[in-house]
Amino acid sequence: MNTTILRKSVLGIAGLAFAGGVFAGPVTEAHANPVDANPVDAKAVAVAVQADKPSVDKGKLIPHGVQGKQSRIDVGAEQTANVKAIIAATKKSGMDERAAVVAIATSLQESKLENLGHLGERNDFDSQGLFQQRPSSGWGTVEQITDPEYSTMAFLKGLKQVDGWKDMPLTEAAQTVQVSAYPDHYAQWEQQAADLVAKHWNN
Q1: Beta partners for residue 116, in sequence order
Q2: CA 36, CA 14: separation in Å to the nearest integer?
Q3: What angle do CA 103, 107, 113 make, to 5 degrees?
Q4: Is the confidence at residue 15, as pLDDT, over 60?
């Protein structure tokens, strides 16, 4: 037989065998080549995914600039979970990033983003939850106001009823809802609240 024809026949049979293996199913892990010819860089993928996330318009977060000296606290896992719950409830309420900033700043002042139960002698009347809402003032039951979603949506419902809240300084908008004995204290948390919304809004 002609040598060239023989070589072509052998190659053809090898090609069919390879194709059969491909279509028959994936190679088992035990027989896979340990050296990937095209290794995937996990860090590069993570960066690419991060880059694809839409960024928050920071102009919407603090449209009027912060007022006065700003305070900041370390935010732990439980507080971060509460931030995410506030943001989720804000979206569910159909409100924007600025509403989330107002809500988070309010919670920072009222509870340091902790979902507080009754504090006994240290309790401010019957105030509880992220926003220190009071059952006796009609905010809901204890079970409701210590539920992050419910308490946030209750706060935002009050905020929606404040005419022109978007055009107000944050502390004025928050105070109109909360009716606090310390109306100016919300202002100090605006920058941290905005930073938290920028970080978690698109998570």
Answers
A1: 129
A2: 23
A3: 125
A4: no
